[in-house]
Amino acid sequence: MFFLRLIIRNAFRHKLRTILTIVGVAVAVLAFGLLRTLVDLWYAGVEASSASRLVTRNAISLVFPLPISYKDRIRQVPGVKGVSWGNWFGGIYKEEKNFFPSFAVEPKEYLAMYPEYVIPDDQRSAFLLDRRGCVVGRKTAERFGWKIGDAVTLRGTIFPGQWEFVIRAIYRGAKKNTDETQLFFHWDYLNETVKKTIPRRADQAGFYLVELKKPEQAAEVSLAVDALFKNSLAETLTETEKAFQLSFVSMTEAIMVAIQIVSYVVIVIIMVVAANTMAMTARERIAEYATLKTLGFGARHIGGVIFGESLVISLAGGVTGILLTFPAAHWIETALSQFFPVFTVARLTIWFDLAAALTVGVIAGIFPTWRGATIRIADGLRRIG
């Protein structure tokens, strides 16, 4: 207990320097935590993927559609439980900045495949019965102040024109990492309008979603589906939902690696700053350490005090940084929801933050500890006066 009090008193003997060091560590840990959460966000779609769902798309590129007639043939493949389909719509609400994910989907089986979208039964029924109805995520509804029954007009980017919808349902995510910013509407509504305006683009789906009876049949069913359309004008590529999401992540992998490197560089920089602070502290107290040795304190006690002081400062900064991470993440998720629909700090990130702060304390304290523990009494006392 005596040594703990001594460590804490020593840590705050030079209050301004200690507080500035704690603030520096806190900012570094805050930046580290937010950058790691950003990386986690990139993989949120992968983590939310279901092993029982497959995605079938055009083998050349996702840009090219598939004939709608494929759905009946896919449904006949052994091991397939259900089939839905859809198109990326890419609608904009009033201004370019009001962009959010929007899809035209076959609604009944699509919603059945995604239990993570929680919709009240009455709203679900109203949506299924209304051809112009749409389902919107909670965050998007709150962002624009939309309510059930509101009429909404989106400007199509892939399918030009002004598209009118009626909000029939608002979904909530069953999990924290469920995206609550999307909008879904009836694929039939899209197709019927396209038939009148751009007939050559009608009766085509951007992708098929295949639900499996058993997840372990994924490889077998994927091969069977692709074999059905081999040598056709529109060959397919079927893969698990997780592999489909990873294909998007891989396009930006270099950016993710760069962000991870930056997060580690931030920790290294603050480690150097903290090491410099502790070295200055130890140098200023050499005479004190020599005096303590003359009073009978051993190298182990003096080294423990110096090392403990380094840990107290770095952990104080680390805990402060962790406490600041949550309101900062909440602000990002709220104010920048169009870019970061899910920005939840994971428990593993907190452990990484603590490990980073602890590493800073340990590395920064090694040299001063060695210096203080090995100082000779004569050399230390020579500095007095």
Order of helices and strands: HHHEEHEEEHEHEHEEEHEEHEHHHHHH
Distance between the termini: 32 Å
> Domains counted in the coordinates: how many?
2
The unreliable regions are none
Task: Report on this structure.
This protein has 15 helices and 13 strands. The protein is α+β, with helices and mostly antiparallel strands and 385 residues long. The chain folds into 2 domains: 1-45 and 252-382, no CATH class; 60-234, no CATH class.
Task: Quickly list its features.
385 residues, alpha+beta, 2 domains, eleven-stranded mixed beta sheet, two-stranded antiparallel sheet, 15 helices, 56% helix, elongated
Q: What topology emerges from the helices and strands here?
A:
Elements: H1 2-11, H2 15-42, H3 44-47, E1 53-58, E2 66-67, H4 70-75, E3 80-88, E4 91-92, E5 102-105, H5 107-113, E6 117-118, H6 121-129, E7 133-137, H7 138-144, E8 151-156, E9 161-173, E10 183-186, H8 187-197, E11 204-205, E12 207-212, H9 218-228, E13 236-240, H10 241-251, H11 253-284, H12 286-294, H13 299-335, H14 347-374, H15 377-381
Parallel strand pairs: 5-10, 7-9
Antiparallel strand pairs: 1-12, 1-13, 2-11, 3-5, 3-12, 4-8, 6-9, 7-10, 8-9
Helix pairs in contact: 1-13, 2-11, 2-13, 2-14, 11-14, 13-14
Provide a compact summary of the structure.
The chain has helices at 2-11, 15-42, 44-47, 70-75, 107-113, 121-129, 138-144, 187-197, 218-228, 241-251, 253-284, 286-294, 299-335, 347-374, 377-381; strands spanning 53-58, 66-67, 80-88, 91-92, 102-105, 117-118, 133-137, 151-156, 161-173, 183-186, 204-205, 207-212, 236-240. The protein is an alpha+beta fold and 385 residues long.
